[in-house]
Predict the 3D structure of the following.
Amino acid sequence: MENKMNKLFKIFTFVFALSFIIGMNVNAQDAISLNPNSLPIHSNNDFGVNCSGGHIHDDGVAENGYGWNPSAGNPSGFATKFVPTTYPYKFTKFCVAWTRVASGPANHTFTIYQWQSVGGLPGPVMDSIVVTAVGVPVWTTVTIFDFDLPSTWAQVTSGDVYIGVMWNPVTVSGIYVGADQSTTTPLWPGYAKTATAAWTPIQTYFSGYRALLTRAEGGPATSYAHDYAAGPFLSLPTQFIKDSTYTIKSQISNLGTSNETNVPVAFFVAGSQQSSVNLSLTAGQTDSVSYSWTPTSAGSKELKVISRLSTDENKANDTVKTTVTVLNAPIVDIFCDPFTTTANWVITNDGGTCVWMQRSTPYPNTYTLPTTSVSPVLSADADACGSSTTTLTTATSITINCSAYENIKLHFDNDWNAIDAADFAKVDYSTNGGTTWTNLINWQGPTDVRNTHEVHAMPNATQMANVKVRFVSIQPGYDWWWAIDNVCLRGSPATGITQTGSNVPTEYALLQNYPNPFNPTTNIKFDIPEQGFVSLKVYDVVGKEVATLVNEVKSAGSYAVDFNGSNLSSGVYFYRLEVGSFTAVKRMILLK
């Protein structure tokens, strides 16, 4: 019995050990080091004076280099804890040691981040800057590169922060951060993160870790009595489409020692002020401002938010700006009829002796239509019907589903030949299947409208499922006609939110996006059982907001919203729904 128990214990021990090893290999698949056995292979580089007077936690010698396999995903990186010596404090320089294998890039582009410390972990992003280390040496040589941080780099007003580096190991391999593994170096708080995992102590991945060769310099931030700062942008959509409306949000901070009231904060596009709001902040307070912007033309646009405190003593941080590209909305045909048949129309006689009908060449009259018109056409032609006829008739389209489209416009080729003031040509559209109508055109004779391609916006038809169009010909006299061709509804695929169904949900819910993984668009659905202010935002793996999908009051119902990640890198993203006290977060993957 004892031998049997010993045998079972050995089997259990082996299985447990095997499962532990397998568990450790999950991290090993993502993490990679130059010297996995932690042998005392030292850098032959003299680190010199780079950040030598600032925050240093290493001994100046790299026993190893830490990096990531492509399986870690984009972005992945490391963060080191930094403790300001006084407050307010501003970091002005950051240094990081890089090395590589021969196949790694000699010029390495990466992002430096500063994160708030939340619960002893890197939290929300305070600031970031993209930089390039030029001339990264091959191991065992390690070089520490220093980078000046922007003058607008966020001040630290309390507590600790984390500063570190993130890059894309999917496209950049063979690059490593210098690591201090000397047992005489005190263990310093540092964290590692992959695209698919949360912040984890670096020693979880690299057991020999004591400190990273990352350093920083800074000093007390200059204190002003009056200092209003703009930035960073808190909400900036990942893409801009002409004629669509977006919310631009910026952080505003009172860094001065005085309370300020009704300070104008203005929003500019291409140097032209769009709007301004007044903001009152007490000393040290931080808030935000939001602006609505509908770009009316495509191209590159500079966006700026400027605080306009008249007594401001530090103008260097008054402005935050960025350049975005506005794209023309892709235009597609929602409905298009060249009148090869009249099957898409219901034609009625409104009291005359002649109605709308399909006519082919040779036409009964000299129709003057744009060159895009090809026989047959649809015409209401009193002259063709005979002497003393009247043409009082309506052609109404079938129901057109525009629920997936916005920026909808009616296009048609036209030739209207009137006689006198008794002649009318009317075009209407309905968004409720014909119950009520909105007028687009109301022409009256005797002025003709001939040989034109008509384009008319239908704003109320945006994302409506029961749209109809009707052409009403009123011609009480003889010798008159109205010919039309190529009647089309055109619009852009909707990127905004749509309400789905008519039932009111009984509870709050945030559903998993579909498809997932996606490239580049996916659909997110959610339910709210009562009216409330809805916030639906997308974040990257470092907690930086990359898109605001909904930021407004919504009535109770079920909703769907599309997210387009065409301007983002492949990786893991999170979307967060907030409605009152309800909060839910889900994970999605963008694969390009």
Q: What stands out?
A: The two ends are 59 Å apart (CA to CA). The longest strand covers residues 121-134.
